[in-house]
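Dear colleague,

Thank you for sharing your sequence with our group. We've completed the structure prediction you requested, and as agreed, I am returning the results in plain text so they can be pasted directly into your records. Please verify that the sequence below matches your submission; if there's any discrepancy, let me know and we will rerun it promptly.
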Amino acid sequence: MINFEEELKNFKPSLEVEEAEQAIYNHELTDMTDVLKEIMREAKRNS
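Please find the predicted structure tokens below.
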């Protein structure tokens, strides 16, 4: 039978996942909020 507590003690995340996580967090991504803010700014300028 698998001892889950022992298995969890041995778990180490792969470097690839950690590297990908840092790249995602450090990258400035445009989300829907940014898009809507820009649309509203343009609408105010044009009215």
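Summary note from our side: Residues 13-46 form one domain.

Kind regards,
the structure core
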